[in-house]
Amino acid sequence: MSFDPNNPWHKVNYGENAPDEVNAIIEIPKNTRAKYELDKESGLLMMDRVLYSSVYYPANYGFVPKTYCDDKDPLDILVLSQIDVVPLCIVRAKIIGVMRMLDEGELDDKLIAVAANDMSVSHYNDISELPEHLLRETRHFFEEYKRLENKTVEVEDFQDAATAKQILKQSMADYDAYIAELKK
Fold first, then answer.
1. Among the four residues 92, 155, 159, 171, which has the most C-beta atoms within 10 Å?
2. At residue 105, does pLDDT exceed 90?
3. Of which family is this protein a member (predicted)?
């Protein structure tokens, strides 16, 4: 893959207060069945598919720029907010936890964050403070959303803000190594 410095994945900084707060780039607003994804070549948003199951994203979903994970994508992030955030919007997000999951047998962590500029959620500092039902809904969504595609997703556990920040720091270091290798 070629390196395009104007692609939002590479151009937008992850934020000066990382790992506590990051700039999240939203791909999918909450309450939709559309699976949008950043096209790595063009930097445009493309519709990957409409979800096969009758479920809706429980939070705004996107990625943290200038991060890289084992699935060869930037680190995923769910941003809780009272509003549906438009795709390709940059949201300042406070990290409060992580959902550890396996997607088709591969590790696929999802950071859990709150929109720092949304007073209805910005008071949360750790995933343990969230309503239990919200975590159950999130788990249910991710365990079900690919079932009718005959794909398996297993949510292993929700973990605290400290663990999430360690995962974020590792993905930032992995991005630096990935870019250095691309530029060789």
1. 171
2. no
3. Belongs to the PPase family.
